[in-house]
Amino acid sequence: MAVVPASLSGQDVGSFAYLTIKDRIPQILTKVIDTLHRHKNEFFEKHGEEGVEAEKKAISLLSKLRNELQTDKPIIPLVEKFVDTDIWNQYLEYQQSLLNESDGKSRWFYSPWLFVECYMYRRIHEAIIQSPPIDYFDVFKESKEQNFYESQESVIALCTHLQQLIKTIEDLDENQLKDEFFKLLQISLWGNKCDLSLSGGESSSQKTDALNSLEDLKPFILLNDMEHVWSLLSNCKKTREKASVTRVYIVLDNSGFELVTDLILANFLLSSELATEVHFYGKTIPWFVSDTTIHDFNWLIEQVKHGNHKWMSKCGADWEEYVKMGKWVYHDHIFWTLPHEYCAMPQVAPDLYAELQKAHLILFKGDLNYRKLTGDRKWEFSVPFHQALNGFHPAPLCTIRTLKAEIQVGLKPGQGEQLMASEPCWWTSGKYGIFQYDGPL
């Protein structure tokens, strides 16, 4: 395997990784502790004194975690038995084996940023599962739901657009269909701005009509491989036999408004017959503040179905029907909440890799997926995407991401450097987006 560059880490003072570990992560932990405090009465009503004691225990474990992080203590193994505990602890041992530290211990600021950030969310989950009877509690649920409620007007506008489009979809010629597809891909891209882990858990809802902003946002798409995605799916549609299937997989990112944009896109894929099945991959545990779990997926469809607008509730009813019919399938797998980069999937989760190989196209949403696809390493801007994937090629794939981390490959020579000179925060602000494809052309 070719030599890969070093991992991004907090040891580069002033870098986005450094500022995340120093400021954003402690801020998120403080919000989690505050959330548990605010639910004290609910825990007492449900579980009596036992609930209050559990809340105190979880807060104490999280306060300890925050202290470990802020004082750059060694990273310690997980202790609570869970389905992934052994894999995590083996990975921690592996990270320690790579170190030149005199005490051989992984530390927060000196270990790969991808690893420590994932580890922090896994430790939050550990604190909750160590505190029964409140071990079911999703500390991020409120903020995810708030993001959806605050984006209502945008959700209604998108649902209305989709339902009007579906009415005339059979009358559209190929170019018109392609234009509509591109619109919904772009909606899904800019929906990715609504990321609560980037805002430290503060509100990041969509309050403007996304459809009317698309033209203004086009100059901020740095890489645009939408044509490749279209030609792949339209060829699948043209060559498909009557009984055969076209599967599109969407590896989800945020719940709330972004998930609505993904479901709108998935609905269009079925209505336009560009796909016959859409499979969604979410997280098994609450993750990176706003990532989608099965509860979020089902909750959101239910909310849309009971929305107080006819086109919104029509979308929700249709989506529920797709799930019942098996045209939409939700999956989760522990691999998505492990710290491994995706090129390790064939070894760590061969069952998942085999599943992804059945896709005609995989859409990877958001920043964390991009970081894991590229190994979160210090790649040169112009390194080809295919090379940065480091052997991860289960099926044709396209990443749909607004940039919120110091990693970007596949740019034209000099493009990244030019952006860096004019806008030092260009790759962490969420202002720019990409559609980056890997697969047959």
Automatic annotation (TrEMBL):
Residues 20-419 form the Damage-control phosphatase ARMT1-like metal-binding domain. Subfamily III proteins have a conserved RTxK motif about 40-50 residues from the C-terminus; the threonine may be replaced by serine or cysteine. Metal-dependent phosphatase that shows phosphatase activity against several substrates, including fructose-1-phosphate and fructose-6-phosphate. Its preference for fructose-1-phosphate, a strong glycating agent that causes DNA damage rather than a canonical yeast metabolite, suggests a damage-control function in hexose phosphate metabolism. Has also been shown to have O-methyltransferase activity that methylates glutamate residues of target proteins to form gamma-glutamyl methyl ester residues. Possibly methylates PCNA, suggesting it is involved in the DNA damage response. It comes from Papio anubis (Olive baboon). InterPro entries: ARMT-1-like_metal-bd_sf (IPR036075), ARMT1 (IPR039763), ARMT1-like_metal-bd (IPR002791). This is Sugar phosphate phosphatase. Its EC number is 2.1.1.-, 3.1.3.-. GO terms for biological process: DNA damage response; methylation. It catalyses: beta-D-fructose 6-phosphate = dihydroxyacetone + D-glyceraldehyde 3-phosphate; beta-D-fructose 1-phosphate + H2O = D-fructose + phosphate; L-glutamyl-[protein] + S-adenosyl-L-methionine = [protein]-L-glutamate 5-O-methyl ester + S-adenosyl-L-homocysteine.
